[in-house]
Amino acid sequence: MIILMLAAVIAGTLTAQFSILPEIVIIYSDEITRYMLYLLLLLIGYDIGRDKSTIRKLINADRQAFLVPIGTIAGTLVGGAFAVLFINMSIKDSLAISAGFGWYSLSAVIIADAKGGDLGSIAFLTNVFREMISIILIPVLAKYVNPYVSIAPGGATTMDTTLPIIEKYAGSSAAFIAFLHGFILSSLVPILVPMFL
Amino acid sequence: MLIFLLFLMTGIALGYFLNGKNIDKTQKIFLNVSILLLLFFMGASIGKDPELFDKIAGFGFQALVIASSTIFFSIIAVLIIIKFMGNKQ
Question: Which of A8, A33, A49 comes nearest B36 by C-beta?
Answer without folding.
Answer: A8
